[in-house]
Amino acid sequence: MAQNSPFQQKYRKIKPKSRGDREYCDGRTYLQNKTELRQRVFERSEGKCEDLISMATEINLLHVAKNAVYALMRCGRPITWESMELSHKRHGIHRDDSERGVLASCKSCHEKRHAAAKIPRRPGKIMPTSKAKAYWEATECFCNGVKKAGSSFCPECAAKLSPQTAFTLENADDPESYREALAQAEVEILMYGK
């Protein structure tokens, strides 16, 4: 039996309230409009990428042995106002929208910084609605197995579910209940499916 999509639009979406500028007690700042910050950081950078990259250099220590030394050096690629990307030094709850917390980066350095910051999702944690919808439409199960698009799990994971959890997951008719049932099912598969 095919499961109905819990992501069909049934209700009017409520627009979230906009978040204003905030300062935290540990000195971090959150800015809603970063245009002025971007201007100050671009002027500080003098048109060059500020991100640090590691460069392998060989030096001769006392003419005895050659050693490879990795030094952190400034990238220094030329950037313009249009090509500059405002890159945060830290991400997540530690993100700081102040001059000390951001860098003027070129596109490639900014992409490398974000690739290093990505952490895989912990199974059993409730996904945001957009990621839950993408997971629903994808063909890869959370265990890296192959599942059908429009289903929640691969056949091996689905066999490990209790009848009650499978029923709850199959009859979830809105994104919120689907996300909660999906997280509960993942925990059940990990705990009792071995």
How does this structure look, described?
With 194 residues, the protein is of the alpha+beta class. The chain folds into two domains: 23-117, no CATH class; 129-192, no CATH class. It has helices at residues 35-45, 107-117, 129-137, 155-159, 163-170, 175-192, and strands at residues 22-23, 29-30, 52-61, 65-74, 85-88, 102-105. It has a two-stranded antiparallel ribbon with strand order 1-2. The chain has a two-stranded antiparallel ribbon with strand order 3-4. A hairpin with a 5-residue loop joins strand 1 (22-23) and strand 2 (29-30). The two termini are 26 Å apart.
Key descriptive features of the protein:
194 residues; alpha+beta; two-stranded antiparallel ribbon; two-stranded antiparallel sheet; 6 helices; 32% helix
Helices and strands, with pairings:
Blueprint: E1 22-23, E2 29-30, H1 35-45, E3 52-61, E4 65-74, E5 85-88, E6 102-105, H2 107-117, H3 129-137, H4 155-159, H5 163-170, H6 175-192
Antiparallel strand pairs: 1-2, 3-4, 5-6
